[in-house]
Amino acid sequence: MGCELTKLAATKSRNQAGNDSSSPPSLPASTDPRLPLTAKQKYTVIASWKAVSRALEPTGIYMFIRLFEENAELLNMFTKFRELKTKEQQSSSMELAEHAKTVMSTLDEGIKSLDDMDAFLTYLHEVGASHTKIPGFNRQYFWKIEKPFLDAVERTLEDRYSENVENIYKLTIKFIIETLIDGFDKAQSDKAKS
């Protein structure tokens, strides 16, 4: 059955491509209504993310350094590296690199599963829920990563980070953060009920 569907989809996109040569045939006609991106925007973010995906650790370390520059108080949330007060200490810390890789892998997994909204939502809800176990973690902290994330992606993509790409990443990280918060909130209310 999978093969039939694939053939059907391939035939359909070839036919569409024949009628309208301006759009690449690999773009699906529509996206999941839960995704706040158009098919073209989703394609752009997934395609450009490949470059970030090859540099997850340096991108993540830079993101965390930017996070702590702007929100020094958040450093106290991280028992493993709260004593790293300088940028130099942070950039050479194995613990910070490890955590940066974990967070970037979460974002990597999220962006790569934009094609499957059920998988995307399930995964990010679980990650959001896991943050309820961190003592003193506030759901608003998720928003603090937005700007450092965009700065880090811009640094990694360099000249490929056009205004259009930036706008798509803004929509994407906002959606990811909102999904993490939904997972966090649900876990909090489930805890309260039990």
Automatic annotation (TrEMBL):
<feature type="compositionally biased region" description="Polar residues">
    <location>
        <begin position="12"/>
        <end position="24"/>
    </location>
</feature>
<keyword id="KW-0813">Transport</keyword>
<dbReference type="GO" id="GO:0005344">
    <property type="term" value="F:oxygen carrier activity"/>
</dbReference>
<keyword id="KW-0408">Iron</keyword>
<dbReference type="InterPro" id="IPR000971">
    <property type="entry name" value="Globin"/>
</dbReference>
<dbReference type="InterPro" id="IPR012292">
    <property type="entry name" value="Globin/Proto"/>
</dbReference>
<dbReference type="GO" id="GO:0019825">
    <property type="term" value="F:oxygen binding"/>
</dbReference>
<protein>
    <recommendedName>
        <fullName>Globin domain-containing protein</fullName>
    </recommendedName>
</protein>
<keyword id="KW-0479">Metal-binding</keyword>
<dbReference type="InterPro" id="IPR009050">
    <property type="entry name" value="Globin-like_sf"/>
</dbReference>
<dbReference type="GO" id="GO:0020037">
    <property type="term" value="F:heme binding"/>
</dbReference>
<keyword id="KW-0561">Oxygen transport</keyword>
<keyword id="KW-0349">Heme</keyword>
<dbReference type="InterPro" id="IPR050532">
    <property type="entry name" value="Globin-like_OT"/>
</dbReference>
<comment type="similarity">
    <text>Belongs to the globin family.</text>
</comment>
<feature type="region of interest" description="Disordered">
    <location>
        <begin position="1"/>
        <end position="34"/>
    </location>
</feature>
<dbReference type="Pfam" id="PF00042">
    <property type="entry name" value="Globin"/>
</dbReference>
<feature type="domain" description="Globin">
    <location>
        <begin position="36"/>
        <end position="185"/>
    </location>
</feature>
<dbReference type="GO" id="GO:0046872">
    <property type="term" value="F:metal ion binding"/>
</dbReference>
